[in-house]
Amino acid sequence: MATFGEKIRMRREELNLSQEQLASLAGLTRRSIVSYETTSKRPYASSIRKIAAALGVTVRYLERDDIDDPQAGIDEEPFIQEAREMYGKKGADEMAAVLAQNEALFAGGTLTEDQKDMFYEAVTRAYFMNKERAREKFGRKAPKKQME
């Protein structure tokens, strides 16, 4: 099992990138990349997403030391990203949890990639629909204007 920093260094080296080149691709400084590779320091979530994209790996792979597959969770990432764009970090975390809870459905299964995508899309639609219903029912109401 590799740590966050070890995964960055190993993947960077596989791609024959210098720390400077990775920093440029990720929109970070070389100093940050050096720090992540050589210490236990972890960046903010937004920087992790940038590093993952620059290295062609998933966020899940970088964040979890127990995952060795650089493409772990690749099917779910677009749906998690969509939830992040609509509902922020909390929404992304909730979507990731919902999808992770349903991962067992695919264990040893015979679903095609299209069938998996259809499943993820259905779960995503259901999640968004319920978030909107909750917002309408429990969200803040605009204050009533007083009559003069």
Using DSSP, what is the number of strands? 0
The average pLDDT is 85
Order of SSEs? HHHHHHH
Q: Assess the beta-strand content as a share of residues.
A: under 5%
Low-confidence stretches: none
CA-based shape: globular
Q: Report on the biggest sheet.
A: none
User: What structural class do helix, strand and pairing data support?
Assistant: mainly alpha
Brief synopsis:
The chain has 148 residues and is an all-alpha fold. The chain has helices at residues 4-14, 19-26, 30-38, 45-55, 59-63, 77-101, 113-138. It has 2 domains: 4-63, 434 Repressor (Amino-terminal Domain) (Orthogonal Bundle), CATH 1.10.260.40; 77-138, no CATH class.
Task: Describe this structure as you would to a colleague.
This protein has 148 residues and is mainly alpha-helical. The chain folds into two domains: 60 residues, lambda repressor-like DNA-binding domains (434 Repressor (Amino-terminal Domain)), CATH 1.10.260; 62 residues, no CATH class. 64% of the residues lie in helices and 0% in strands. The N and C termini lie far apart (69 Å).
